[in-house]
User: What shape does this take?
Amino acid sequence: MIAPIFELSLEQLVADIKKGQISAKSVMNAVYQNIEKHNASLNVFRSLLDKSRALAWAESIDAKVKNGESLGRLAGIPVTIKDNICILDTELKTTCGSKILENFHAPYHATVVEKLIKEDALVIGKTNMDEFAMGSSTENSAYAATRNPWDLERVPGGSSGAAAVSIAARMALLALGSDTGGSIRQPASMCGVTGIKPTYGVVSRYGLVAYGSSLDQIGCFAKSAEDCALGLSVIQGYDERDSTSAQVNYEEGLSEIDLSQLKFCLPLEYIDEKVADAEVIASVKELVSLLKKSGATIEERSLPLTQHLVPTYYILAFAEASSNLGRFDGIRYGSRKQNGDTLESLYKTSRSSGFGTEVKRRIMLGTFVLSAGYYDQYYGKAGKVRKMIENEVESLFTEFDFIIGPVSPFPAFKLGEKTEDPLLMYLADIYSVLANLTRTPAISIPTKLSASGLPIGTQLIGRKFQDAYLLSTAVAIQKLTDYHKVRAPQFKG
Amino acid sequence: MKFEPVIGLEIHTQLATASKIFCRCSTQYGALPNSNTCPVCLGLPGVLPVLNKKVLEFAVRLGLATHCTIRLDSQFSRKNYFYPDLPKAYQISQFDRPICENGWLDIEVGGKTKRIGITRIHMEEDAGKLIHDEEGGDSSYVDLNRAGVPLLEIVSEPDFRSAEEAKAYMEKIHSLVTYLEISDGDMEKGNLRCDANVSIRLSGEEKFGTRTETKNINSFRFVQQAIAYEIERQTEEVLDGREITQETRLWNADKKVTYSMRSKEEAHDYRYFPDPDLPVAHLSQQWVDSIQAQLPELPDAKQQRFVVDYGLRHEDAGRLVSDRAVADYYEEVLTAESDPKLAFNWVAVELGRVVNETKKSIREIGVPPLQLSQLIGMIADGSISGKIAKTVFEEMLRSGEAPRQIVEAKGLRQVSDPGALDKIAEEIIAKNPDQVQQYREGKSKVFGFFVGQVMKASKGQANPQIVNQLLKEKLDA
Assistant: This one.
């Protein structure tokens, strides 16, 4: 029987593997069966371990179990990582979904990869993404779009779309993604899985190819908040190689939450029908009434700074990106193209042919907002607005435990539907960028299926460094709902 | 028409930390190309900088020594531009919140002291090096060993009015960074490089003229020559009725000219912004105070003390203190109670000559301070004459032996025993009756002849004062 493997909690599965009741090899076989069946139609992997190598690796875990050796907290668990997280491997590349890194093999492990390996997780592949994490649909990958398992004509969200799909289609049991403006939560919502963006600084960014350095954060996807908690407990922690890494003791363990003691803030701007689909608002309201039934307090509140979130986010992210992506110049690594024999032509040709349209757009806008004469007007001002938003949210958290609201204004949309209008695509981030700008932890949990059968998630945003509290609350909520257990119809197996 | 030059300097000094500013790679000079590198200083995708705390400490040391205000919340910024020696396509530097600001430094030119304002001192990383194909090919190679080596950039106010002042200032900065032990100050290895901003204006005019910036000057002599050239060039331009173009220039040391590198229109927009990878560098006043307390005695104070304590002339003291190693050496010579002025001559003049000739440092010459002190003591107590001392000194340099041993082994001790000298004097007088006659007839010049003969007979070891006295007694008798 394969099915029980995917029904068990990660913690239970690891315990069973360690006891020898379930073999790591059978788990690996089960995920590869899904990969072999569905990867061609979904386009999840940018690079993938050869099955025989993955199985041999799983067998080595089983051998250790047999020999009574002690094993880590993710022993035998197949994990995918987004293609912007560096891993030193002969088969697994780090392309960031870009042509400019088409054949790039990182010469070092990201800190999170070291932590996964230390706990005996098995990293089997790199997931597709919008180029350099710039996008909300995974259509911006230089290597074809990833598709949504709930409807192959639709996008999985982005930029960590394929990471979400790897969980939704059970091609892995834990997936690492990165979230700069919603890139974990939005695809989690669109694919019916759970995804957390931790507090900025809780997970080391060392080895994550930077997009917007002050906003980027690695997080994880799994089939439940409980599984996400185990994943986060492994990858979190202070890292001396990341100066923005936090020196706090993360409470690893989940705690029992009494929902009746909690106070949620529901921002009025987040349930504005002019912005969000009615079904999305309904999803939030249904969860709200469920929480009320459990005795929780929910208060509607206006967050007037909401209108500034998207412009502030994009100015900061593009500016940082324009600088971060300067290093891809064709000199030391990545693709080099030359037309003529000057240094300038090498730069221009390599970057023009190596980067996709959206990346170029963001580099140019980012360069503009940092330019002499425009800095104060754009980047400088955006920094000040960010500070104001941070203060506003901080004061809100003196009254409330969580902010509750939608993740995305709409469920998964059709491929190509928004590619012609970048501004429309940017607006998809309206509810998600708040957590990045304020460096707070936020989670997306599945809370509804639309009339057309598409998953819709709800977002909870917590206080800084209270990631465990946020996850514990999500676990409590998932005891009230079953949406996280609902699988895409064609991909059960 | 009389013109006045207005000059400001930006000096880059390479810090003598063991590891680079943002990673743990060695800063060792001369290693195989790209051997002192790691993912961080190679600027690979995904890497992050971590500040080497030693760099902060060194910056604060120099800031305090130059009377700057130390910023307790300084910040790093990115300076964005493309060049193959800059692997991230941005240099991590400081922009609007540098660590040190508003300081000053006194220089001395032509016996006059002048106070030069220091606008700011900031921390930054060095770039790598491009090596162009030497066999005439069109390839260039990138060596990133130097990428990430820590630098301090010291920006002066436009306070210099001559090339000499600028040179004196650069020498003073060199002296300071070595006193503070924050840089090796090795000019040959590019430890100290400078950019000179030069403009001219009519004497009495308040407004600054258009300036040029001459970049990457790496010696004291060149800074003086390059600035002097720029003043002359700009003066000629103006006299010929042409405008000065604001531009970046380079110094050609072979042709002794500056030449244009790029004009203002081609100047970069560096798009500085705070580096999101590096949090604000918070310092406590207490920590800054503890560094202040640990600062060594600096050149100006030392010079003053040498004048007061040792009775040296101001210029002589200045000559000793400009190099901390020389000043320390001098004081070690003095510990054995040598005469300070005699010691100055031996350290600054005699050893100074050897330092210049051999290009070695004073410690590398192989004359320990106590041996020099011994030599000076032997002159002072009359054991040897000043002239013999020079012979002994040469031998010390050659063999590394102690002066006392040399004097004993070669029998160079000065003869001051009147009995021994009396015998020689008698013999000389007896051998030269004609000269005795002449002397007694009033030709007093002949006296020197007798002294010379006695010295010669004693192989130079006779104590000249006693010889004089003896001869006078005998000839005048």
Q: What stands out?
A: The domain at 418-475 of chain B is CATH 1.10.10.410 (Arc Repressor Mutant, subunit A). DSSP finds 15 helices and 16 strands in chain B.
